[in-house]
Design brief:
By secondary structure, the protein is an alpha/beta fold. The chain has three domains: 228 residues, 2-enoyl-CoA Hydratase, Chain A, domain 1 (Alpha-Beta Complex); 128 residues; 55 residues, Nucleic acid-binding proteins (OB fold (Dihydrolipoamide Acetyltransferase, E2P)), CATH 2.40.50.140. It has an eight-stranded mixed sheet with strand order 2-1-13-3-4-5-7-10, with helices on both faces. It has a five-stranded mixed beta barrel with strand order 14-15-16-18-17. A three-stranded mixed sheet has the order 6-8-9. A hairpin with a 2-residue loop joins strand 11 and strand 12. The radius of gyration is 35 Å and the shape is elongated. The N and C termini lie far apart (85 Å).
Length: 432
């Protein structure tokens, strides 16, 4: 079991609700509830797998997957459907809350459920494959992918006695319907305002699983919430294309900064950690490696601007490369799998601005007067250790120097160094 399990008791038609502590394993009349909102990706597949595993080991009656998704990756979707269809216990997919949707991959998952339900104000559809493997497809490949998706969703619909014609239209024509239309078209089995209402509709319903037929109990049912857990929540955040882009940029900057200034340590640590996290993010997404290389090249150009006099050409090239790299980073036409322009442009400009400030500071430092060595002594103020008329000694920067002054200077008075010749400094009184 992952994380803490909260339970709610639903008592018959009266729906008397109360919280109880999970002091014993789930009983046969218990139902597990897993909630997933977001893109279908490896995290979603792992979460469903864990929830089903917990449901089976707990000897629960069924699993309710509360789903709200714009779609996602084909590979992850198929893994989830395999888990659902092979499950020995019923899986109810509940598209909720109001305003939610089951689009693209979500259509397949919903139709693969033993019981499909939707909340009022939700919609389902638009399942046309959009570069399912990532990248551009020619007409022949598009036809192959589309036909494959049609055959897959029709087989799912047929297995559960749902509308095969609409399922095909959802893929070929990207049709989408409301919950009321979905019920009339036999796309789903029921509409429920919430989970307690869903449980009322389930009472006495018979479903078929690989092991045989199961009838939902009309007795008291206890709901066990199955939380995603901190690890999967973190991985879900890392699977965001925007986060992947940001981590890759920060990681490259950190590693390059460490190479420029060996021994700084902190930039190298931050860069290495960021790059490793970026690699995880990218492995769960359909990555265009040309885009990734452009991002890295853009960062290198920006850092070179600090040490190479290019009059801004390297900086402009770096900004352009990072922007193009972000746009090309993900090989998919699906908007929810791409780096958002509203995130990309501010990120690029912020990184460019920081590099610009560092470059300006470096240039300003090279144009300033020396602060070390013999040249750094010019302009310094010292104190006469003896009378200077014209020769004597002066203390400056903690050292005693032989000094020459054309204007007499008394012991204890201050003097400014104007030049250095060997081990002798020329000074003038500061009061003249």
């Amino acid at each position: 079991m992952r994380g803490r399990v909260l339970t709610t008791t639903i008592v018959g038609p009266g729906l008397a609700l109360c919280l109880i502590l999970p002091t014993h394993p789930a009983l046969a009349e218990d139902i597990i509830v897993a909630t997933y909102e977001g893109v279908i990706n490896p995290v979603a597949a792992e979460y469903l797998h864990d929830a089903l595993e917990y449901t089976q080991t707990s000897n629960a009656q069924a699993l309710i997957l509360k789903l709200d998704t714009p779609g996602g990756l084909d590979t992850s979707m198929r893994l989830m459907i395999k888990d659902i269809t092979g499950s020995p216990i019923p899986v109810i997919v509940f598209v909720a809350p109001s305003g939610g949707r089951a689009a693209s991959a979500g259509v397949f998952i919903t139709m693969a459920a033993h019981v499909a339900a939707m909340a009022p104000g939700t919609n389902i559809g638009a399942a046309h494959p959009v570069a399912m493997g990532g990248g551009e497809m020619d007409s022949t490949m598009k036809e192959k992918v589309e036909n494959d998706a049609v055959a897959y969703i029709k087989s799912i619909a047929e297995q559960h006695g749902r509308n095969m014609s609409w399922a095909e239209d959802a893929v070929r024509k990207s049709v989408s319907v409301t919950e009321q239309e979905a019920l009339k078209l036999n796309v789903i089995d029921m509409i429920a305002e919430d989970i307690p209402t869903l449980l009322k509709h389930l009472q006495g319903r018979k479903v078929t699983v690989p092991s045989g037929s199961i009838t939902f109990s009309g007795e008291t049912a206890t709901l066990h919430e199955f939380p995603m857990g901190t690890r999967l929540e973190l991985l879900k955040i890392l699977s965001d294309p925007n986060i992947a882009y940001l981590l890759m940029s920060i990681g490259t900057i950190g590693i390059m900064a460490e190479l420029y200034s060996p021994g700084a340590i902190l930039p190298g640590i931050i860069g290495a950690i960021s790059l490793i996290l970026a690699f995880y993010s990218l492995q769960s997404l359909p990555v265009n490696y040309a885009g990734a290389l452009l991002v890295i090249l853009g960062v290198v150009f920006l850092l070179l601007e600090i040490s190479v006099t290019s009059y801004g050409i390297l900086a402009l090239g770096g900004l352009a490369a990072m922007t193009l790299g972000g746009l090309l980073l993900i090989k998919s036409d699906a908007p929810f799998l791409q780096v958002s322009l509203f995130f990309l442009l501010p990120t690029v400009m912020t990184i460019g601005g920081l590099i610009g400030i560092i470059a300006w500071t470096a240039v300003k430092g090279t144009r300033g007067r020396p602060v070390t060595g013999v040249e750094g002594m010019i302009g310094s103020i010292g104190i006469a250790k003896t009378d200077l008329n014209p020769h004597g000694q002066i203390a400056v920067q903690g050292e005693i120097w032989e000094a020459v002054s054309q204007i007499p200077i008394r012991q204890g008075e201050t003097a400014e160094i104007t030049s250095v010749e060997g081990l002798t400094v020329k000074v003038v009184p500061t009061h003249s």
